[in-house]
């Protein structure tokens, strides 16, 4: 024992014991303050975490990160509870718990410093982006005078208020159902043509509904082949927010939930119009747990899983007669006034269908007795009690037979060339009909036919912005809309003959789905190639020869560009409706030697990149091209092209990166229209060398800042439109040298400070639009030269310009000042991509 105590080993051991004892005493003294620090930290964190949970739910973010933080805090609380029970008898346990407390505190600090901060930063970025989007909307609305500071009306996606004759009782019933508490989804159901969509639009304008939901009313059409991401993008577009890209449907719905929470502290009404059978799952995705958030669904199916539907019954006899008389114009002077009994019998045959009543009434308007009698006999011989879509199509067929002008019927059938529930630009119809039916190019006869079809209640026309009047033959803001059943009727009329013999061939290609005749044609091609390979002899594959004058092909975003080897030798019009980001022109395009009109429209939300555009260089008869929502590739030589229309296109590759000048590519161009192309900063080089140009329209191109200085070289220019080019700050002096200019439009060029000094030299000027040019402070003195003209000039401006500018020249007798009423129309906010459709 003595040896052990006196040895060096014992000294070393005792030294470690003493050292450990001293450390224990030190940590024991630090245990109390460490415990108090942990307690204070946890007390401070508790209310913050609860607040974070509330904001996390508001932003509709995943709860995983908050739950992990709560778990760490609970573990810390448990540790504190244990440590608070320790006494001096547990002195030697203090260092162990001291270390646990410090470790737990460091873990919590690290989690807050890294994970939570990153999560919060991400949420702030998302929130900031959305706030920026809303601020963009408000800024645009303030600048345009559409926002009065008291309401955010621009966020409303509801369409224009329709007529709703004879449906007052149904409207009141729907209003009561929507105002009830506890109803999340309400289904408005009825037969095709019963007026469901019309009623849904009308309810958006009901005073009580507007009073409850304010500007937070959103209306979107779902249609037969719904694309959830596109629907959500449409809602973002309604709100004038940046339209985001979604990788998945789940991401789209999550972002929509965030959007709806941002735009509405007040109640929200979402209308999903024209929901087809088997789409209940789609409706479910739009359900969010939000206070006073309602969904109104219109469908031919009741969807009872969402509760008791609101049934839209056929009209009673009294309202049906009133509706029929209104659209037959029986209250006006008529070439034939039918007996009341004959009217009642025809109305009874319509079985209370608003669509049937309107179309039949329109077809009989101003018609002689024989037409009325024939219609009565037809209705009595046909059984339409069920009024399913097939019966109704046959039923509506009679309204087309009454069209006396063959062009009217053909033009109506052309409406089926375009996708369901999409607006059809009137300018497209004018271009097509000018070539197909030899109508005039300015659209006078085309508009006469359109008005006749409106009178027959077969179509509707809306004008999104009243930039110019119809007397100027300017229809860039006019769109045709039609009931989906009438569209089906138009398509049905086009399918009366075999594929090879149809006048218009309408093809829809979704994903890998192909028509039977398409598959058979491709199989024949494979067999021919296989036989060639086996036999060693080349066998030319059999091509599908079609005689159609019009070819319409619609593809979705999953189309694989697997084109059939067709031979459309007779086609004069090619309509391509697409949704994909990349699109290749069909190889058979170069064989379309008779092609005169090419229409390419992208209905997606991204610009579509076109390839094989050079195939158009082989088409010597091609006269008109209209491109919408595409990235226009480099130009090829189109020496006979007379009209080029670009709408919402990316023009950089065309006008800036192309090696060939536009004057060399299109030397005989007569009309150039560029609308909503926001990457256009300057006009392409060489445009002033196209001396054949008569109409130049650059509208809604907000980045265009200047025009070519040698504009007077356009010696044949008759129309120059520059309306709503907000960055335009200069007009060249050479404008005064446009000796044939009849119409000059600089409406809403808000930053244009002055006009060219020689503006008064425009001796053939007839119309001068200058509404909304707020920076113009004076007119050049040369306007006094208008006094010497042999005709009058109509100057269209606002009150301020009339007084401040033209008031300085009161003695110019040939100048007629017109001050149109302010037209506040938010249809243009939806763009041409809006899926809202008018049901008559």
UniProtKB/TrEMBL annotation:
GO molecular function (one): ADP binding
Gene Ontology terms: biological process: defense response
Keywords, ordered alphabetically: Plant defense, Repeat
Xref: InterPro entries: Apaf_helical (IPR042197), LRR_dom_sf (IPR032675), LRR_R13L4/SHOC2-like (IPR055414), NB-ARC (IPR002182), P-loop_NTPase (IPR027417), Powdery_mildew-R_dom (IPR008808), WH-like_DNA-bd_sf (IPR036388)
Residue ranges constituting the RPW8 domain according to the UniProt record: 1-150
Pfam families: LRR_14, NB-ARC, RPW8
Family: Belongs to the disease resistance NB-LRR family.
Name of the protein this chain belongs to: RPW8 domain-containing protein
Organism: Vicia faba
